[in-house]
Amino acid sequence: MEQTLTAWLLPAITLVAGIAIGFLIARLAPNAAPGRTQRQLDEIQERFDTYQNEVVTHFNTTANLVKKLSQTQLDVQQHLSDGANRLALDELTRQRLLATLHADDSGEKRERLKAPTHHEMPKDYAPKSADVPGMLDESYGLKHK
Q: Would you state the pLDDT for residue 6?
């Protein structure tokens, strides 16, 4: 019977010791893992915040550049208008220049060039009148005496 008690007691003590050691490891190990996970989460959050700031900065810079571009376009148009007023030789030329400058502002569209309406193939010969002999005529190019 002592053998059976020892046979059962030794595995039972080993089981209890294993549970105790496992419990201690479980209590100590999770403290390390959440700390590492928290650091990774903080790092990802910091990178995301940096990215968001870069996006906002990019669009603010783009908006400012577009605003400057619009202002520069207005300045160029004003310069051309002043030049047309100062440098045009006569009133008609001045009016035509100003109308051309301000046509873009009013939204008017200029007439575009259109393709020809007839679709005749190009000729590989020069047309001739009926009374002139053609190149294949026997008398073509001969001088009459």
A: 76
H/E element holding 12? Answer: helix 2-87
Cα distances (Å, whole numbers) of residue 51 to 10, 11, 63, 104: 61, 58, 18, 40
Question: Residue 129 falls within a domain, yes or no?
Answer: no
Domain that holds residue 79: 8-103
Do the domain assignments include residue 28? yes
Q: pTM for the whole thing?
A: 0.43
Cα dihedral 135/138/143/145 (nearest 10): -160
pLDDT over 90 at 64, yes or no = yes
Q: Is residue 122 part of a domain?
A: no
Residue that has been written with the tokens 């073509």 in this structure: 140
Give the Cα separation of 17 and 9 in Å (integer): 12
